[in-house]
Design a protein that fits this description.
46% of the residues lie in helices and 10% in strands. It is mainly alpha-helical. A three-stranded parallel beta sheet has the order 1-2-3. Helix 5 links the parallel strand 2 and strand 3.
């Protein structure tokens, strides 16, 4: 974790072009412990006002599919850990509308490859030392430039983060 997968997905999810292009957008976070009910309620909660939560998981899945049917949808499933979870959820997403998109974030190469449908996985890479230093400078100094006496320690700090943007 910490390489920026969720941050990148959030940027897309909140981008005006995405909001304007799609009829509905929804986001859910899975994490290591999968709870189908929580996931379905989270996805539905972004699409319709919350209502009676006494429905079964199957009823929730059917409702989600019904709300997405014949709509251009943009879905983010964040932090997916297993192919089995994807198998459990994918039937909720109608595939008849070709302009819809689903973004999955995962640390697991096997999961990314397994879920590949129309495009290959995008692998987010670690920052180089120089990229880390640039990001650290931007975060600390904004538009100002770094004082020369702080540069050496700043570069050292940036390198100690191992290329992980969130560690900066």
């Amino acid at each position: 974790g910490g390489i920026g997968k969720t941050t990148l997905a959030k940027r897309l999810y909140t981008h005006n072009d995405i909001i304007d292009r799609f009829d509905v957008c929804s986001w859910c976070t899975i994490s290591q412990v999968y709870n189908k009910r929580k996931t379905l309620l989270e996805l539905l909660g972004n699409l319709v006002p919350p209502n009676d939560n006494t429905r079964s998981n199957d009823e929730l899945a059917v409702e989600l599919r019904r709300h997405l049917l014949r709509k251009k949808y943009f879905i983010v499933i964040d932090d997916l850990w297993s192919a089995e979870v994807w198998d459990d959820l994918k039937s909720c997403f109608p595939d008849g509308y070709s302009c819809s998109r689903i973004i999955l974030t995962t640390r697991q190469d096997k999961v990314a490859s397994y879920t590949e449908v129309f495009s290959a996985p995008h692998h987010v890479r670690l920052f180089t030392g120089e990229e880390s230093w640039c990001l650290l400078q931007k975060k600390v100094f904004g538009e100002e430039s770094c004082a020369p006496q702080l540069e050496k320690i700043g570069v050292k700090i940036a390198q100690s983060c191992g290329g992980l943007p969130l560690a900066l």
